[in-house]
Amino acid sequence: MKNKSDAGQGAPKKRKTPIPVAVIDVGATSVRMTIAEIKPNGDHVIIEELVHPVSLGVDTFQCGHIRPVTMRAVCQVLSNFSRVLKQYEVEEVRAVATSAIREASNQDVVIDRIRHESGIDLLVLDAVEESRLTYKTILPFLKKRLRSKKRHTMLIDLGGGSTEIMVLKGHDLAFAGSRRLGMSRIFHSSAQAECQDSQAMLETAIRNIVGSTEDLYRAYPIKECVIINGLLVNSLSDEKKVEAFEDGICLSSESFRKASVESAGMNSQERSERFDIGPADSELLLPAMMITQAFLDTLSVKRIFFVDADMMQGMLGDLISEINGKDPLEEFNRQIICSAQGLADKYHYDKKHAEQVHKLCCQLFDSFSAFLDLDAKDRIFLRVAAIIHDIGMFVSELAHHKHSYYLIRWSEIVGLSDDDREIIAQVVRYHRKASPSPTHSEYMALSVRDRIKVSKLASILRIADALDRRHRQDIHSLHAKITDDELIIKAETTGDLMVEQAAMLDKGNLFSEITGIKVVLKKYIP
Amino acid sequence: MKLDDPKIFINRELSWLDFNFRVLAEAESDNVPLLDRLKFIAISSSNLDEFFMIRTSLVHRAIEENTGALGPDGLSPRETLAGISEKTHEMVGRTYECLLNKIIPSLHKEGIELLRISDLTKEELAYLEGYYRENVRPVLTPMAIDTSHPFPLLANLVTYILFKVKPIDSAARGFFSQTDTVLMQVPPGIRRFIKLPGSDQNKSRFAILDDVIIRFAGQILGGYEIKGAYPFRVTRDADFTVNDEEVDDLMQAIEKELRSRRRGSPVRLGISTDVPPEIVSYIQGELGLEERDVYHIPWLTDLKTLFGLIGLIDRPDLLDKKWPPHDHPLFLTSNTDIFDVVKRNDVILHHPYQKFDPVIQLLRQAAEDPDVLAIKITLYRVSGDSPLVTALMKAAQNGKQVTVLVELRARFDEEANINWARALDNAGAHVIYGVVGYKTHSKVCLVVRREEDGIRRYVHLGTGNYNDKTARLYTDIGYFTSRPDFGQDISSFFNVITGYSLPPKWNRIEMAPTGMRERFISMIEREIEKHSPETPGYIRAKMNSLIDPEIIKALYKASMAGVTIDLVVRGMCRLRARVKGLSENIRVFSILDRFLEHSRIYHFHNGGNEEVYCASADWMERNFDSRLELLFPIIDAQDRKTVLRPLDLAMIDNVKAWEMGNDGKYHRLKRHGGEKEVRSQEVLYTEASKEMERSKRKSGQMTFVARTSPNKK
Q1: Which one from B326, B328, B351, B441 is the annotated catalytic residue?
Q2: Predicted ipTM?
């Protein structure tokens, strides 16, 4: 079985027969698998959908790690799933895990156990990736139900362990963030406290987190709200005045509030009967409703949509794109770049220079990314860094790389996590002057892997920046080649390269430091 | 009547006995060929054995444990047992009356003579003595009962002969000397009926093993004078439940239980009529039975053995004409590509009017087909040397992913099941030994095949077990389809029953125990909602037994609301038909004929948008609550007609049909003057034949048989 985790960018495979694929999501309360078949024309049909409850969230959110008994359970479920995969001879499998495994202290052991017992390689998603997949999953719903291009919509993906919050303008992301707030997490951390009035404690915890989040989206004039949560859809679909669609339901804010108040006054048994759900679900319904109500109190929307969707469709969409030879991240990356441009614009950047550096970065990256062992996600980091590398000039030209650094750290870029932004900020920080050094505390705070990443990306950014030293966009295109001891860059330009070559002496040094290879700039002669 | 009145329900045990009376009525009917009548005697009597082992045992236990009423009819266990005893005494009386005064004399006239020892000739006695020495005596084990040898534990359903003896002074020796009572088992491994020499086509004479043992007992009980010999037979509680949530290895537990089945508490004593009262009360006392549990038997203690006798008689003229199953029009030849057919059509098979072969063919073809990836099947009761199991093994050996869900707890078949389950396991199949807490009763098979345009799933769903032998005797519906939504449902169903997944939202099917009762009730209620003078509500259903109180109440409500309900229930029925103010619009029919009515078919008018379903489940609590069952719709309009045909015919049958009156009693439906005779099974058989011929003609496969002799028909 082959697990693909990188975005494929190869040529479309020529094929006449359908390809069976599978996506697996190991969540906080259950493990799911969808097996589909991708037809040669790009359409897909669902073959099987499986879901098995496993309470990973209870373990992680209550005791910080996954207990042996739960580990055995999740291995068993995935071994069973693996058996089903064999029945269809599925080779393209994408298996991901979210917060319950992400935050477990014994994450590595669990993933290793699962690989050993089921042959399934789990990829632990970060919160942003989760948002992206959710966004991808929900997009068809939005296009169908909320067609306005201008209105702002708040998307809340209320999960077991985390809640992804997104603000959309039309169908484009304006803001995305993630909070450690989930039905299972909240329920089990409050159950552990054995507080006399656990409901009140729950409420306080939820309000605190939502309150701290509110600042981030307060600026947007939000008119619609979509909650992604299957349990709420199931529980509320028989409410009075509910508007039901094939892919979700819609309820007035007032009706929801009433149901929520009613639910809060009930015990688990009563709730189970009132909303026609199982006992386990009935326990989680209370936090689900409380979280929803807490968000609702910060918004002024008249109605709420509830949608039952998980990342599975988004993941499947990725696989389909890849198999059809498309970059599954294309749309999402476009949104990240837009957001970066918005940020740069705010600080009156030299747009033409930034775009030139961005273009050259891409050409350089694509020429020798394999040599530097960089992947698709690094590419987007580099692109963002290229666009915003000079924003510090807004503060002062002097040491502007340092100004850029903190401006980036404290800004929001849609689709990037705080950790992502830290890496990009440091890439920018090292686009000129001193190379990374053990005396730089921020640099040393990164993991070894990330430090190397920063150095590599910064070295490319420096070369690209040197190539537009004159801020005149003289170079139309370039050809880069790596030999045994040299990186030879041949630039297509009408003018001379004297300034650039001089700049390269200074700015190519980082690349030489990390690769042992000299950078040579020549004029391209066809 | 109010719906909370227990009187709205008929007691299920008594209802079962009524069913067995209907079976007996076939034996009593002069219109049934003689050997078939004998067969019905054997059937009703073997039914009764099973009923005592399972149901009556339950009542016995309820009395012992002093529990309340067993059913919603409110009858206490004591009252129930009294009712059972009364009806069974009547049944036993009628059985022997029919056998001894009608069937045996008629057989005699046909040259088939069942003889007592006193009727035999000298030569025949001499022959039997030789036979006894050679075959019987070596396996006889006399057991003396005396102060040091208490009354032994007697095997279930095995006939014993109690000899009253008196030692003859000089010859008596060994430990027998003290005793006046010796027990001897009639060895179950030896033929009960011994064909006597000189039998030919016109005349066959038979002696009975029991008589032979008694006649020559002196040889084994040398030194004793035999004062009397008294055959009797004990029935024991054989209803065991393996609490599989507590045992780790279900297979081991069942094997252990099987060994102990011989030792359940006694529930019934059948004993020769001529046994002196003091001996009856002695045995009865030893077994701890009461007067009501004792049945006096004028002749053979074990009528089930008549099956063996029928096998010895080669007289087709005394049997119903053979009805060999027909080919389905789409499977006229054995080399038909089953995938090719099912890819293009849904196919309904109606067994045993049509052959079971396509089902075997599906698995055989799947085992060899290189494009088949996986096969999954549930097996409940499989015949001993099942070609299905062979095909599955072959498939596993050929590298297919074979998943077999074996139900080890199919009553009385456990032993057979364990053996072939092990064999499958050894062949490399993934064998699942049942589902904790539930019996897997669904009959479903899934074949996953990789085809040019993608994965295609072939599904077979049935109302009867995957058993090629019973498929020749039981009426059942089989449904082949390759519809993707069915495929997805059935894949999910297997994922659910193997514990891989929670139940999804079904496209087409419904399963028990998660939602079948609710689904049926909502369909019954929908009939009430949609009932109007323009589109009157109408429900029809055919099943083995109608027991579930919730369904019955829903049906009563529908009847009160004006919905017409026609039920064809072969066996037990707790519902009362045609009762004013309760069930005026409900009719209950029962068909008893040569084939065992077994198909479960459900028809809802649904305001004109008709829905037809088949299921593995009856409307019984156990089906809804403690078994894994499947309900599936028949999609194609023509297929729906085919599936409903047995229902249409059952309601106009005037040869083999019974109807329940408002007093709960059944009466045979008689042909009124001028009415055409309708025997539903015969019509179905003829129609299947015509359908096959028609399509043979169309496809040019008509074969002509040349007459080789002028006399041959």
Answers
A1: B441
A2: 0.81
